[in-house]
Amino acid sequence: MSEPKKRNNNFAGSKSEVIVMAVFAFACFFCVWYLVSLNERIGKFFPNPIVVLESFFQAFVTPIGQNTMLEHIFYSLRRVTTGFLLGAFIGIPLGLVMACSKTLRALLMPLFSIVRPIPGLAWIPLAILWFGLGESSKYFLICMTALVGITVQTYHGALNVDPLHIGAARMLGANNFQLFTNVIIRSAIPYIFAGLQGSFAGAWCAVIAAEMIRSDEGVGWIIFNGMNYANTTQVIAGMLAIGIVGLITSALLRALERSFCKWNIQGK
Questions:
Q1: pLDDT bucket at 189, cuts 50 / 70 / 90
Q2: How much of the chain, in percent, has pLDDT values that exceed 70?
Q3: Is the pLDDT reported for residue 76 higher than 70?
Q4: Are 233 and 52 a contacting pair, CB within 8 Å?
Q5: Could you tell me how far CA 82 lies from the centroid of its own chain?
Q6: b/e 65-87 (16+ beta carbons within 10 angstroms → b)
Q7: Backbone angles phi, psi at 260, to 5 degrees
Q8: From start to end of the chain, where are the E strands?
Q9: Do 105 and 29 fall into the same domain?
């Protein structure tokens, strides 16, 4: 009976096998993309991957507008990081307090239940009306997009602590503060990181939309500018930049989660 278990555990393969399969998948994707773009009609509005990659790397040397690709990525990443961290600094404590306080839970959860289904982009009109077209409206939009998801995930993580863990801590003489810091927060960490990863993706969507509305720099501006000039290559190059940055930041968040959650199977 032990042999099938070994096969199940090794089903995903080693890290090297996963990397090889990922490279193979990307190679197949680019081959299909290239073959499709060879069609005369499709090729007029859908450039082949070689042209897109050349444009992407060239943008690191030749500016698009007033900035190079690296500078555009920096502007977008700065906006995302600022709004996202603001949402996390508010959302994580708020979610923990809501889980521990029945009064706050009764007051705030109905509000979050209403706000949660609202897409982050729906806040754009209010952001413009309240903060204008400057940077403040972008930070507000990103913060609101990240805040809801982080708060709700943190709340569920802190609320679903195993009662056995709480009982054991009580038996060992833990006071309320020790129970909160050593049991509740530790149990909520995997949920918190799940909220952070999902909300970070939402924050990128928000900043791209905000930069399309009013901006002179950023990856969203690259895409919007390419659309205005019917430059499909520039649009796809901007999308490629978003994908690469998102992949890197997601990997960093997973690595951070593993360092915080070595004791939890979800963090392995």
A1: confident
A2: 92
A3: yes
A4: yes
A5: 13
A6: eebbbebbbebbbebbebbbebb
A7: -85, -20
A8: none
A9: no
